[in-house]
Amino acid sequence: MKKALKVSLLAVVWLSAVSLGFGGSIFLTGHDPDFHASLGGNALGAQHINQDAITFITDPAFNPFVATAHKFLFVESSISPPSGHTDGINGLIASGYVSGVNFDKVDASGLNNALNHLGTTYDGIVVASDFGGILTQAELDILNARSNDIINFLNAGGGLYAMAESDSGAGLTPQHGFFGYLPFIVTSAQLNQGESGFTVTPFGMGLGLTASDVNGNASHNIFTATGGMDVVDLDASGHIMSLATRSQITNGGVTPEPGTLVLLASGLLGLGLLRRRR
Question: Which has fewest Cβ within 10 Å: 67, 88, 115, 211?
């Protein structure tokens, strides 16, 4: 009886750790919904990707900074958009977010200072796409150089949402370093394709996404490794389009995954109840 109670209590501890927020919330995608939320064939679907991703990284049940910092930091250049690009702020506004209220847009000139306010002014980071949006190498280099600060922010419960990075279109990130501001290796590859036959995984459905959200526009990179993150959606060939996680972050990846924690906690709880019945 005592052993069963101990197992049940352990399960509660695991579940409590998950509910209080275990590490950072990260959502990466090869889509560029900062562009398509205001332009393109499926604006509503792109808006849903933005909304679900931002909701995921700023969920107050997991992100403790939401209680005091009520804005996210939107990272994008201020250059005149080349052909095939647009200012990604338009996509955020079309998705229902108000500049100066829900987020601040910052380019390379103010990015270092803005990153000093993670967890105080900002509860999350949203990084524009480099094709569709106008993220440039200047912003990407600063993000990569401040990786340790971003790691600390994430492991304290902060959130990060980043859109396609591939140097496609006008070639705004020619020195690469895609997603290099993350503390683990996420292997991405340039792949420009129309969105047709894309599918959402059960994990992605749990975030609120549907197949209609991830089809009908265009995407610009795929992921060839997960780094321990969960797959959100796949293209028609089975390539990984988006990844997400809530976990502690290490240089080798994310561990343990909260999905695993929930399963383990549920299993322990069930085992404890079974033993109590016996």
Answer: 67
Backbone angles phi, psi at 225, to 5 degrees: -150, 155
Asked whether the predicted pLDDT for residue 18 surpasses 50, the reply is no
| 25 strand-pairing partners | 159, 246
**How large is the angle between the packed helices 108-115 and 137-145, nearest 10 degrees?**
20
DSSP 130-171: SSSS---HHHHHHHHHTHHHHHHHHHTT-EEEE---S--TTT
Residue 191 contacts residue 159 (beta carbons within 8 Å): no
Pairing of strands 253-254, 249-250: antiparallel
Residue 51: what residue type?
Answer: Q
Asked if residues 183 and 24 have their Cβ atoms less than 8 Å apart, the reply is no
DSSP secondary structure code for residue 118 in this structure: B
Determine the pLDDT at residue 6: 33
Q: Six-digit token pair at 147?
A: 């990786």
CB 34 within 8 A of CB 128: yes
Residue 198, C-beta contacts closer than 8 angstroms, at least 6 positions apart:
211, 214, 215, 233, 234, 235, 236, 241
Residue 21 or residue 148, greater confidence: 148
Name the average pLDDT for the chain.
87
Which residue from 263, 261, 259, 187 is spatially nearest to 226, judged by alpha carbons?
Answer: 187
Q: Could you tell me which residues come within 8 angstroms of residue 118 by beta carbon, excluding any fewer than 6 positions away?
A: 73, 125, 149, 150, 153, 158
Which residue, 149, 145, 53, 148, is CA-closest to 95? 53
Query: pLDDT tens for residues 26-55?
Result: 999 999 999 999 998 999 999 999 999 999
Q: Is 194 exposed, middle or buried (0-12, 13-18, 19+ CB in 10 A)?
A: middle
Find out whether 221 and 30 touch, Cβ atoms under 8 Å.
yes
